[in-house]
Amino acid sequence: MPPTTGPRRRADAERSIARIIAAARKSLSVNPDASIDDIAKAAAVGRMTLYGHFPNRAELVDAALTDALRSGDETLADVDLNGNARDALTQLLDSSWSLVAESTALLIAAQATLPEERIRELHTGHAVRVEGLIRRGQREGVFRTDLPITWLVNLVHYILNGAAAEVRAGRMPADDAAHIVTTTVQSTLAPPRDHPER
């Protein structure tokens, strides 16, 4: 029988890559320190096969985070952001929190492996969505306009990931996190006049 070549060989390689990335996402989401051997075992492939597609752990972590964020972006794209900007933000935060909670360990692995610039680049889609919503809320008069928009967008990111870290450390009940995140973000974005006098 002649060796497998052409489209079939490529299809086999693509399936192998998909299996490795899925295993990396699962392994790193459980243990951010998961090794290449751990991931190869979870993917049911040999080290040589894994290294044939991903020459080092950083490239594999990058691929896993990219895939997770792509899936998350597809989920967030379905969130109804019509109507009042504050209500829309609550909807977006609820959906975002569930995704962040699932991928906290994966993000920890990425932060320990990838440059901060790369992580920010991979989160661009979510940042653009949040920025658009905040700008709309500013036009509606329900979000503050006295601070830079980039800072406000980053605050949402920090609060989400900070809450995930607190849950992971056992300092915040997981069942309370979504409410705490939403309350904190909404309070932070509220116009100064909406904050109670000290």
Automatic annotation (TrEMBL):
DNA-binding region: 35-54
Keyword entries, A-Z: DNA-binding, Transcription, Transcription regulation
A matching Pfam family: TetR_N
InterPro entries, A to Z: Homeodomain-like_sf (IPR009057), HTH-type_TetR-like_transc_reg (IPR050109), HTH_TetR (IPR001647), Tet_transcr_reg_TetR-rel_C_sf (IPR036271)
Recorded GO MF terms: DNA-binding transcription factor activity; transcription cis-regulatory region binding
HTH tetR-type domain segment(s): 14-72
Gene3D superfamilies named among the record's database cross-references: Tetracycline Repressor, domain 2
Alphabetized PROSITE patterns for the sequence: HTH_TETR_2 (PS50977)
Protein name: TetR/AcrR family transcriptional regulator
